[in-house]
Specification:
single chain, mainly beta, ten-stranded parallel β-sheet, 6% helix
């Protein structure tokens, strides 16, 4: 195979993490419950502790292409194109993509070395199609942005999920973080292999419990937008076993289902328009020309994008370098099991005199793996999740370097994304800042941005980790200045500050132990 996920080395070293519960409502019904030993590593294996309600650090290993169980495929070359001396290349590359898609056979469109001018968007909208270059280096294949601000490449099917049958109520009174099974009121219509949505609506009682109906005003005195009831987290899962009324799933849940706060359900679905097995690989792209668009400075930089993936599963972006883009890589909310491997967003294209920063990597889907990535720039978010993103999602072995004098930060961005692992990432000190926190009035009331998320062996200029009500956040083996939560907030679960732990990568170890 030409690509391997690589599990990394495993070491038989003892590393034990003791972390207190701090009496949060998410720690269990009793504030006096014993402090759990959240995670330990001895004799080459991890062991997990739980709080009084059974919550634990999740297993993050089932992310990316085919849940990490297979390397990316090597699709055969089905069409080859070479650069032309001048003019827009969008139409002729699109024609080649469509030809491969319509053939009904897996295949790659091979772009030979050189530059290709794109005034429009290339769309991969069928399964088992790859747009492949001759390499991401200076002598490889380069996509050159031209014309008005746009996305150069989309990998996306059509439509959305449709429910099959009625929503079935969850009967368990409490399903803890990290659980892969639960009880339902009636499992007679559920079968192994069914694709389901485990939905946790965000209801008013829970919004009140976490204080998101009382977000303080903005610093200028204008009111913040308070949270209102909504569809909440929708975990996309496959049933692996049904025993009586107990249903088991392929991937653990990264948020508790609490009957006192939510009416959770399990619903079968169909998604015939979602594609699989498609990707973008082995090329670079230059978005510098977008800065000449008059709209660029006025929030247009958000539309300066290399690739967007949505309505796709088991797909990838591999060995791709984005240079001078505002929002280089975006994973949409209908994307599932997407791998971004060996990617870079360099010299982030963003004005330095504005206060609405773009993100180099934006994750709205689930089971996403961002691995071995590089970000450079200033006045930018390196890696973020958006609102109500159901995990697990993983950013692993990535670096971000501030090349200017403005901010460089990362972390869940808004409205309760659950189950994100920032694993062995480095953000250049002293400016690089990583946070799992309540963003309060920021934006339009972003509030508690992330829950049940982990910083593992992260090296930063500074980091802030807070425990939300009803949930945990962890910072384990992180270096950099540990910021104190604001008055009225509680610190997250912190262990070994200033000294990395073993194993070096939590994701690598979880994947290796599962295999």
């Amino acid at each position: 195979m030409r690509r391997s996920l690589g599990a990394g080395s495993r070491k038989s070293v003892v590393a034990i993490v003791f972390i207190g519960c701090l009496g949060l409502s998410g720690c269990g019904t009793s504030a006096a419950s014993a402090a759990p030993n959240w995670i330990s590593f001895a004799n080459g294996r991890l062991a997990y502790g739980t709080d009084a309600q059974g919550n634990r650090i999740p297993d993050f290993s089932r992310v990316g292409y085919r849940n990490g169980d297979a390397p990316l495929p090597d699709l055969p070359v089905a069409a080859t194109l070479s650069p032309q001396p001048s003019g827009d290349d969008t139409a002729r590359i699109q024609q080649a993509i469509d030809h491969v898609a319509n053939s009904g056979k897996p295949g790659a469109v091979q772009l030979t070395a050189g530059a290709y001018r794109l005034e429009g968007t290339l769309r991969i909208s069928a399964s088992n199609v790859e747009l492949r270059g001759a390499g991401s280096g200076s002598n490889g294949t380069k996509l050159v942005a031209a014309g008005k601000l746009h996305t150069l490449v989309t990998i996306a099917g059509t439509g959305s999920r449709t429910s099959v049958g009625s929503a079935i109520p969850v009967a368990s009174s409490y399903v803890p973080v990290g659980a892969d099974r639960l009880d339902v009121s009636d499992a007679s219509s559920l079968h192994v292999g069914d694709h389901v949505i485990v939905q946790r609506p965000q209801e008013q009682s829970w919004i009140h419990a976490i204080g998101m109906d009382k977000i303080p005003p903005r610093p200028d005195g204008t009111p913040s937008k308070q949270w209102t009831p909504n569809s909440g987290l929708q975990f996309d899962r496959t049933i692996t076993a049904v025993t009586g009324k107990t249903v088991q799933f392929d991937v653990p849940l990264t948020n508790a289902l609490e009957s006192q706060y939510t009416h959770a359900t399990v619903t079968r679905y169909a998604y015939p328009g979602r594609i699989s097995g498609s990707g973008l690989a082995h090329l670079s792209a230059d978005g510098a020309a977008f800065e000449q668009d008059p709209a660029w400075h006025d929030n247009g930089y958000f539309n300066s994008q290399l690739v967007s993936v949505d309505a796709a599963q088991d797909s990838w972006v591999d060995d791709v370098v984005a240079d001078h883009f505002g929002s280089a890589f975006t994973i949409g909310q209908n994307a599932l099991r997407i791998s971004l491997l060996r990617t870079s967003s360099l010299d982030e294209s963003v004005p330095q005199d504005i206060h609405a920063q773009p993100a180099a990597y934006t994750i709205s889907g689930q089971e996403t793996l961002v691995r071995h990535c590089v970000v450079t720039g200033s006045n930018v978010h390196a890696w973020i999740t958006q609102a109500r993103v159901p995990g697990p999602n993983v950013v692993s072995r990535c670096t971000a370097t501030n090349t200017g004098s403005r901010i460089l930060d990362a972390g869940p961005h808004q409205r309760w994304a659950s189950g994100t692992l920032y694993d062995d990432v480095t953000m250049s000190p002293p400016s690089g800042h990583l946070q799992l926190s309540d963003r309060q009035w920021m934006g339009s009331g972003q509030g508690w941005a992330g829950a049940n998320s982990v910083l593992w062996n992260c090296g930063t200029g500074s980091y802030l980790v807070e425990n939300p009500p009803t949930a945990h956040n962890w910072a384990l083996g992180c270096t950099g200045t540990q910021d104190k939560p604001p008055t009225g907030h509680r610190s997250g679960e912190i262990a070994s500050p200033g000294k990395h732990l073993l194993p070096e990568s939590l994701y690598d170890e979880q994947l290796a132990e599962r295999h």
